[in-house]
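Input chain follows. Return structure tokens only.
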Amino acid sequence: MYNYTNGQEKWKKALTNFIRQTQIFYPEDKGGVMVEVCEAKTLCDADQESFKAYLARWLGNAIQMAPFTRDLIMPNLEKSAVGAAQTCEGPSVHGGGPHQCGMKWWNQGFDGISGVGPQMTALNVISVLGVDGAPIPYSMDTGGTSKGNPSLGSGDNNEASAPKPDEKPITTGDKAGAAILTIIVAVLTVGGAVWMLLGA
């Protein structure tokens, strides 16, 4: 909204307060690096292991859309990027070399937690430092689209509803049969319910 209203003070204040709330993800007792609550006791599931990636990316977008937030956001991201990079010394399980990144950035070195989530979070928090040179998110005026596609990419919309070569077209008899079966099932359901209630 700050960007949409061309920097209206009301939204600047709201955005500032919102970003200040993200400080809870940078606890001082963990060195001020980005932390997920589940990390301390190693309870993070596969989804939670990737959450820091999204936060880093969204904070980078906030800098792009509201440049005044840079001074609020960037020091935390820089500290987190250093913390993430120093964990990237674990052995790769797929022969990629000794650069598997860990989950706990406040831990010295690789913590033994590997997988897509930790790799993704480290990549995002490090790459987001280049936000100043990245293009801003697309808008309707700069080539962004949000068009629906009912055919799910399989062709035009008419093709999606057309019968396949091995399918027969639906006839009036098919429709009548379907209606009769529906009525029979409805009567049996209602009749069975009445019988159970009266029998009790």
